Amino acid sequence: MKTLRKITSSLFCGVLCVTGTLWAFAAPWIPEEPSKDEAALVGFYQGNGESLAVRENAGQLEILYRYQPKDKDFTKSNVFTLVKNYYDNYELREIGPNTDATSTLRFDRDKNGQGISLNMGQKSYPRRFGGENGRPMRITPPKPMEELRKEAEAAQPPSPAYQKTAQLVEITSVVPGIVYDLRYTTANNIFGAPLVQSNHAYLDRSAAQALNRVQQDLKPYGYGLVFWEGYRSWSDFKLATLALGEKHQDMLPKAEEGYAHNTGRSVDVSLVDLASGEEVSMISDFDEPSPAQYAQFAGGTQKQRYLRDLLRQMMTREGFTGSDMEWWHFDWDAGTTYQILNTKEP
């Protein structure tokens, strides 16, 4: 029993190494949500040529100070703990080899209680919203989507050499209980308009079978999978590249190169809470172009980081390779070249 208690009280990485027989005795450890007041302050703040991220860790707010411009995910940032004096007023203590200083820090909020600026000394750092707080990034296509769609449909897909061809299957036929949130079939995406006209979702059969194993692996934790995107025809991908326009063209590979989602082996997924049936508030939104999109982003809340890492652990354990650029993106059989496909409804 001493061994069991030691295992069940261990942190996340240790819990994942335990076999399924443990669940008959104890539920996995999951971090608690921070208070709503402090969660509303978590985010990015910029000013005076500096970038800060406020995160929650073990019940306390911390500041990540990014002193290296290339530190995209804030993993090399300096970390400062905030000690609360009273409502929205904190004390920041900086201790180092040559430093022992205290600063007073104050947050301002909007009428809805969301943090909108961070003030320290004579400096103010306005909050920069990415996809959170109902302010997702939107790109206005250079032409109407239907006009761009006709251009995409007339284009010829590339045909590079390949080793395998995906056997596409409807996801729900292989992964019972998976929740569809097919963003590109709706206006809830970066384009603010439907990109894909089908309401079905497809993936290579072997990849879908592996995804079903992930679905089962997540159940003891109280979570299931949300399916954002799988196979996308090349012409729909071509449409996306056209809709980005010249200003944002670097957000996707060139159309003549093809795209991992055109092969049927790539998937974008998130988590759903099985008890409530609600999608989990993850560390970023889908396709959010901010530091929070990176798989190792050090910000957010402790629970958000935990759940992002839980998803990655379960996916990689079943054979998927996670993207470092997008925490939600995974590739099946990543070492093999798959055929670029352009069928709409397999």
In short:
With 346 residues, the chain is α+β, with helices and mostly antiparallel strands. The protein is 19% helix and 26% strand.
Structure write-up:
Helix 4 (145-154) crosses helix 6 and helix 5 crosses helix 7 (302-317). The protein is of the alpha+beta class. Residues 1-25 have low confidence and may be disordered. The chain is built from seven helices and 15 strands. It has an eight-stranded antiparallel beta barrel with strand order 1-2-3-4-5-6-7-8. Strand 6 and strand 7 (115-120) form a beta hairpin. The protein is globular, with a radius of gyration of 22 Å. The chain has helices at 2-8, 12-16, 36-39, 145-154, 205-218, 234-244, 302-317; strands at residues 43-47, 50-57, 60-66, 78-86, 89-96, 99-109, 115-120, 123-128, 168-170, 179-180, 202-204, 223-229, 266-273, 320-322, 329-332.
